Amino acid sequence: MSYPSVGGKSVTNTNYPGIQDPGTIIETAAGKIEYGTAGEGPVVLVVHGAPGGYDQGLGLARIFTERGMRVLAPSRPGYLGTPLDTGRTIAEQADALAALLDALGIDKVAVVGTSAGGPIAYTLAARHADRVSCLVAVDGVSQRYVIPAQAGKVEQALFLSDFGERLVHALMAHFPGLVISDLLSTEGYLTSKEQHERVKQVVADPEKLRAVKVLCNSMNPYRLRKAGVDNDLIQLAGIDNLPLSEIKAPSLIIHGTADADVQFRDGDHAASTIAAAQHLWINRGTHLCFWLSPQATEVQEQAVAFVKAHMQ
């Protein structure tokens, strides 16, 4: 069902089983783009990782809505309701985000890019500098990427299939520690002792446990995200040089030093190449350190403070 309700553009509401927040598909100059939004105030554009979708952006960026900002979370091409034809390459996806801002009548945003969304966030800031007030990259890819060896066949079967996601959902309901332990072993270079302690901390912390549930839920149903994941792997493996040196916006690069998915060197590379970059390294932080590390609350508050200081 379509509604001509956004700047005269025809939009369509979307609903998916298991996804609490409805999405909206709008026609842009780049093609159809699905997005979700939450909160009120200056706009923070969240560029999700892989797998993901607008639901991941909304769920993992809740700290910004709780601090008086509006989160705009699109589904990148190939994820949920955004067709892959809207933009396959990193540059095309960055341009599509600018087209989304045009369609919604939004002039300027803070950009938060996570994981596989990092290259798109970086490229958006470089190609559309007038639209980006500041940039935060959370364990973002900044160089050529291939699936790490730690993401073995079992982990891929669990997190990159519909059957696996149903199993993960059931395990989260009754044995969350098992899922968290597997996530941390795949996403981080932790010792057995560190991993054991980290699992206990996450299970005992309602906000950290919520973040794990959001992450797991935002991979399901996988069949509606597979095209995006497959395309991401092609695009990320083909990265030569991202236009990092062209970024002028104030930038905060956040990365865990024990990230086994997107290596710490990616964060270091971005921080040393972007002229206006600050960095925040999370000691012994895994790929999920922004949400699950012992320092997560402090780091999130620093990210919010950075965004608020630079938003217009």
Automatic annotation (TrEMBL):
One of its GO terms (cellular component) is membrane. InterPro entries: AB_hydrolase_1, AB_hydrolase_fold, AB_hydrolase_sf. The keyword Acyltransferase does not apply. Residues 42-168 form the AB hydrolase-1 domain. Keywords: Hydrolase. GO terms for molecular function: hydrolase activity. Transmembrane segments: none annotated. This is AB hydrolase-1 domain-containing protein. It comes from Candidatus Thiodictyon syntrophicum. The lineage of its organism: Bacteria, Pseudomonadati, Pseudomonadota, Gammaproteobacteria, Chromatiales.
